[in-house]
Amino acid sequence: MKNKILTFIVVLSTIYLLRSIVFFYLADIAYNKNDLPSAIALNPTEPIYYSRLGLLLSQQNDPKAISYSNIAASISPANINILKERAQTFFNLSSLDSNYYLNSLDTLEKISKKLAPTDAKIFWTIGQFLQAASKDDEAITFYKKAISLKDNYDDAHFSLAKIYLSQKKYNLARPELEKTLTIAPQNSEAQALLYSLPASDKSAP
């Protein structure tokens, strides 16, 4: 009798395991097809599915995006990629409510201070968000921080150069463009901007 019970338990466990494997496989297929609701239904424990659905909905200005982002963050609160997408989700919805913009920055600052304080890309991303919100002077601070962590970060140098150009600070823009091209000589936009600078930077503040 005991052997029959043990056999039954083993068979049941095997069936459950196989079922789970099949569901996970089907969930991945649905995810790759961008059928996120089906992916969640098949595997409701995978945070990336909720995160991507939240991001997708935020691009459509759908406030329900926040609930999916919240679920993703609750399942995996220290996952940097999840938090990056959460920040983008908030940012996409900031036109609906300015508080979402603050939530976006808070999420990125959590990453930069607690989870990845030496990740230059995080500081560059914060700079991008600030620049998109017309907070150029604040963005400069974060671009400089990114560069201090990774001197050969061409995106940060280029972003900094474009702000200086918009402020007509040509004497500051020139070295940033030159540095950008030293790191990424194929950057045609940086080449064009460098050639467009006045022959003399004396007009710069």
Question: What does this molecule look like?
Answer:
The protein is mainly α. It has a domain at 118-205: Tetratricopeptide repeat domain (Serine Threonine Protein Phosphatase 5, Tetratricopeptide repeat, Alpha Horseshoe), CATH 1.25.40.10. Helices cover 76% and strands 0% of the residues. The protein is built from eleven helices and no strands. It is elongated, with a radius of gyration of 24 Å. The termini are far apart. The model has no long low-confidence stretch (mean pLDDT 87).
Secondary structure topology:
Layout: H1 2-32, H2 36-42, H3 47-59, H4 65-75, H5 80-92, H6 98-115, H7 120-132, H8 136-149, H9 154-166, H10 170-183, H11 188-196
Helix pairs in contact: 1-2, 2-3, 3-4, 3-5, 4-5, 5-6, 6-7, 7-8, 8-9, 9-10, 10-11
* CATH class placement of the domain at 118-205: Mainly Alpha
What is the CATH topology classification name of the domain at 118-205?
Serine Threonine Protein Phosphatase 5, Tetratricopeptide repeat
Overall form: elongated
Overall residue-averaged pLDDT value: 87
CATH superfamily of the domain at 118-205: Tetratricopeptide repeat domain
The fraction of residues in strands falls at: under 5%
Short précis:
It contains eleven helices and no strands. With 205 residues, the protein is mainly alpha-helical. The chain has a domain at 118-205: Alpha Horseshoe (Serine Threonine Protein Phosphatase 5, Tetratricopeptide repeat).
